[in-house]
Amino acid sequence: MLVKDVGVCIRAVDYSETSQVVTFFARDSGKVGAIAKGSKRPKSAFDGPIEVFSHGRIVFSDSGRARLATLTEFEQQAGFMGLRKNLFALNCCLLGAELVGGLTDEFDPHPRLFESLVQFLKDAEGSKSKAELLALLILFELSVLKEAGLGPVIGVCANCKSALGAGRCEGYFSSSANGLICRDCEGSFPDRIRMSAKAGACLAELKLLGRSGQSELREVEGVLIAHLTELLHRRPKTAKYVLSNWREAVE
Ligand SMILES: [Zn+2]
Known about the structure:
Bound molecules: zinc ion
Shape: elongated
CATH superfamily of the largest domain: Recombination protein O, C-terminal domain
Distance between the termini: 52 Å
Mean pLDDT: 92
Oligomer: single chain
Structural class: alpha+beta
CATH class of the largest domain: Mainly Alpha
Strand content: 15-25%
Helix content: 25-40%
Strand order of the largest sheet: 1-2-3-5-4
């Protein structure tokens, strides 16, 4: 069965001298792993080798979902090439893509997350500062978690539901509680990570992200990476390129 969709490549590895195995995140199909035969030949049906973040209309034959699909067409659109000029932006996007791959299942459609991913790549490409990129990444990570049904509790204490927010957030995050926790509850969660009041407030009130400095944003990102490491049972591979010393950021 041939399936037509629109997708963004989130992973590409060489399979042979001329072919690649690619993973697309597609609007209506979700994550799709496919073999792109002959993609590395000079005259391929895919406009040349397929790179991560290339996107456009795809056609693939779905071979019963137990095996890799076969990519038969890919009309690459222009766009996101600017990411290659800004290493930090590229690394933030690679982490975002890794999380989409790690937290969604094959052929499980998430059209809203697809739109968020495209918007995140556009915004990251146009972004000039590291602080802005970190804020975009944090918001995107939260939307991936939400779409995966794992959205952390951040506006109120995840345990007793008392309101957190500017001035009232004591700055603790617990993966086992799946969210921020207040000072009264922190003792019950041995896995809690202490955050500075400023970074805790940032996470409790996301509108503060855009106005925060790099150090608070690094701290929030460090907490999210620690949380994602718990959820995935491994540290995201690309995390070290975004926060080389992410453990320090949260300790
Ligand atoms: Zn509480």
